[in-house]
TrEMBL record:
Keywords: Membrane, Transmembrane, Transmembrane helix
Superkingdom of origin: Bacteria
Ranges that cross the membrane: 6-21
UniProt-recorded name of the protein: Uncharacterized protein
Length: 206
């Protein structure tokens, strides 16, 4: 009797866990379908494995304004941890310029990637310098890049998503902890995409 009860309990917990995974995966898939449809991107939706207990995250890729783009979840956690992040990548033609934007303060410093060869850059705009930790290998280029309202847009993006923007090696990227599982999160990534497109056009302008 005890064994039967234990088996039933294990089966019940397993079934509940399976349903939670399925529901979560469906929410995420719905957002990626919306992204693919909105921007004419290819959708990659891996099949579940291990009877549905392992459900790899989907991804999208393609071109927007002749620039290659992808939104995906790296196979390993952030900086080899268990933290999962979603990364939006956009192709740029400049291979020399490098920069990073994270939130200022202690938490922002944890999101810094390989910043060797980069120095902290100050814009002279108190609001921007207080909110954003900007680092670059070319302060002159960055100053030209962030003319107009781009500074306030970067502040808004980093504040809303607690993410980070990275530029280097022909790629402009935005990384945010977590998965795209809601309309609000998808819309935030769409706003980031428009920001990166503006930054890319400004950077690649003759």
């Amino acid at each position: 009797m005890v064994v039967a009860y234990f088996v039933a309990l294990v089966v019940g917990i397993g079934a509940l866990y399976w349903l939670v995974l399925k529901n979560s995966a469906e929410k995420i898939a719905k957002q990626y379908v919306a992204l693919a449809d909105s921007y004419g991107l290819e959708l990659n939706q891996p099949e579940p494995v291990m009877a549905g207990f392992i459900r790899p995250e989907p991804s999208v890729y393609g071109k927007i304004k002749e620039r290659e783009i992808s939104i995906s979840v790296p196979g390993k956690g952030l900086q080899n941890t268990r933290q999962i992040e979603t990364v939006l990548k956009l192709e740029i033609t400049d291979n020399k310029f490098a920069a990073q934007f994270t939130g200022a303060g202690l938490l922002g410093s944890f999101r810094q990637r390989d910043s060797r060869g980069m120095e902290r850059w100050k814009s002279g705009n108190e609001s921007f310098d207080h909110a954003v930790d900007a680092r670059t290998n070319d302060g002159g280029v960055l100053g030209r890049l962030l003319e107009g309202d781009l500074q306030s847009d970067i502040i808004s993006v980093l504040k809303k998503g607690k993410g980070s923007i990275y530029i280097g090696s022909g790629v402009m990227a935005y990384a945010e902890l977590g998965l795209i599982a809601s309309d609000a999160c998808r819309e935030r990534f769409e706003a980031v995409l428009q920001l990166l497109l503006r930054l890319a056009d400004a950077l690649d302008a003759p």
